[in-house]
Write a structure and sequence with these properties.
Blueprint (H helix, E strand, L loop, with lengths): L21 H21 L4 H33 L3 H23 L7 H30 L2 H15 L16 H6 L2 H8 L7 H29 L1
Helix pairs in contact: 1-2, 1-4, 1-5, 2-3, 2-5, 2-8, 3-4, 5-8, 7-8
């Protein structure tokens, strides 16, 4: 991709609409992901800590991407002449990441897991660069600071109730992603519980997750309509 404007990675908060703008929210998530991937690959962590770090990476990757697909990419298709082609490419990257991480999680004893994780991290970093250098600058060019903050709030609301695990069979675009993906967030959040959680914690989590899933379907659909 060829960037039409300055990458958001090279601009400060004021230039990107303030700390609560969608551009700053995206950049913070990207920086956190990069730091966690670097730590996973370079530090000699005990197995339990390494597993916890992997879970943190997976949770952030998929909640972040789901919110992009629900709120940001429909908006970009509306305001940018080449938005369809750009978002299609990023959606293909997201699908490839989904499939690779699903393979890792379904093959706990496969000796290829280390190589697959390296491939997944490379894809995630490529996705980050495409977004920061090309897609997100188009939103900066199209909207004023207030609009960027409003989009940021909508994106964050969807992100905190999104699925946190790979689901390669879920569509990458609304409304299919919300209808099929958001209910899975209940299952995902149960799986995300610490292994030592007791029955009471699991029951509480299940009840909360069911409420979250039902409400999030409505929230995601509304966000897509409002900003798509």
């Amino acid at each position: 991709m060829t960037a039409p404007a300055v990458s958001i990675s090279e601009q400060d908060a004021d230039a990107l609409g303030g700390d609560d703008s969608i551009l700053m929210r995206q950049r913070r998530d990207h920086a956190r992901l990069d730091a966690m991937m670097n730590r996973y690959q370079t530090e000699d962590l005990p197995p339990g800590e390494l597993d916890g770090l992997w879970l943190d990476i997976v949770q952030l990757v998929f909640s972040h991407a789901f919110a992009e697909e629900t709120v940001l990419w429909p908006l970009l298709r509306r305001v940018s002449p080449d938005g369809e082609a750009l978002t299609r490419q990023v959606e293909e990257e997201h699908q490839a990441i989904n499939e690779l991480i699903a393979r890792i999680e379904h093959s706990p004893d496969d000796p290829r897991r280390a190589e697959w994780s390296r491939q997944a991290f490379a894809l995630i970093r490529e996705d980050i660069r495409d977004e920061e250098d090309t897609l997100l600058p188009r939103l900066r060019a199209a909207f004023d600071d207030r609009k960027l903050r409003r989009v940021g709030a909508a994106w964050e609301a969807v992100r905190v109730t999104a699925p946190t695990r790979p689901h390669p069979g879920v569509p990458r675009r609304p409304p299919g992603n919300a209808l099929r993906g958001v209910p899975l967030s209940a299952v995902d959040r149960l799986r995300d519980l610490a292994p030592g959680s007791g029955p009471a914690a699991r029951r509480t989590s299940l009840a909360a997750a069911a409420v979250v899933a039902g409400g999030a379907v409505v929230l995601a659909a509304r966000a897509a309509r409002r900003h798509g």
